[in-house]
Amino acid sequence: MLKKAALILVFLLPLFSAFGQRKLPRWHEPTKAETELAEYNAQCVHRNKYSAAQRLRFYPFNKAVQVKLVAFYGLSDPNVQVFVDSVAQKAPKKINYWKYPFNGNETDTTQFIEVKLLNKVQVNKLTDILYNIDQRAIDYNIIYNQYACYEPRNAIVFTNSKGKIFAHIEICFECRKISTRPEKMNIGGYCEGKLDLLKSYFASSGIIYGVDTAYTYKFKRIR
């Protein structure tokens, strides 16, 4: 009797497993209609999924005393001399030795050439972009375009009560890529156009370098 029950269980287990798993569609070369639908579904739409209070409960916003937008020098090898001059800085500032600002858990804030401290209204707008804007619909034919390059010049940084940066969202607007520390940080879903919304947000907040292409490439530096 026990042997018979065991055999029945062996046959039933695959059925239970099949019911418990979500079957994904087999991939194939998308048709023109599927491609057009995928492009439509990939577009960003605004959803009132999370309230302002709920959005602030997501890490790292729930741990941050201050949230800042920053720009740092790109398109160069380390240890070169550069001159910083922007609308926000009337007098040119000379940086003798440039280096990448983020190194593990440490951040060299002297490498930031533009910094904007966000107020509550600006933080609310930022969290709305991150968490309430998502793709129109799930579509397995969606393939987002990315470039092989990665030369970040901008970031969103989060500081604690001691003024230490404990997390950051690094952005390369030109290469359309984002990197976070910690890596498993929840920054919401991705959709076609979201980076453009973030870029406009940086611009409206007063960040120029890395956002304004003409200004970025005319940025003076010396070897």
Layout of secondary structure:
Layout: H1 2-20, H2 32-42, E1 44-46, H3 52-55, E2 66-72, E3 81-86, E4 89-95, E5 102-103, E6 106-107, E7 112-117, H4 120-132, E8 133-135, E9 154-159, E10 165-172, E11 177-181, H5 194-204, H6 213-217, E12 221-222
Antiparallel strand pairs: 1-8, 2-7, 2-9, 3-4, 3-12, 5-6, 9-10, 10-11
Shape designation: globular
User: What is the ordering of alpha helices and beta strands?
Assistant: HHEHEEEEEEHEEEEHHE
Structural classification: alpha+beta
Q: N- to C-terminal separation?
A: 84 Å
The main sheet orders its strands as: 7-2-9-10-11
Radius of gyration, taken over Cα atoms and rounded to an integer in Å = 23 Å
Low-confidence stretches: 2-20, 76-83, 85-96
Q: Could you tell me the number of beta strands?
A: 12
- Summarize the main sheet: 5 strands, antiparallel
Mean pLDDT: 79
Assembly state here? single chain
Question: How many DSSP H or I helices?
Answer: 6
- Taken as a percent bin, the fraction of beta residues is 25-35%
Q: Helical residue percent?
A: 25-40%
Please provide a brief summary of the model.
The chain is of the alpha+beta class and about 220 residues long. The protein contains 6 helices and 12 strands.
What would the keywords be for this entry?
about 220 residues; alpha+beta; 3-stranded antiparallel sheet; about 30% helix; about 25% strand
Overview of the structural elements:
By secondary structure, this protein is an alpha+beta fold. Helix content is 28%, strand content 26%. It is built from 6 helices and 12 strands. The strands form 4 sheets. The protein has a 5-stranded antiparallel beta sheet with strand order 7-2-9-10-11, with no helix packed on it. The chain has a 3-stranded antiparallel beta sheet with strand order 4-3-12, with no helix packed on it.
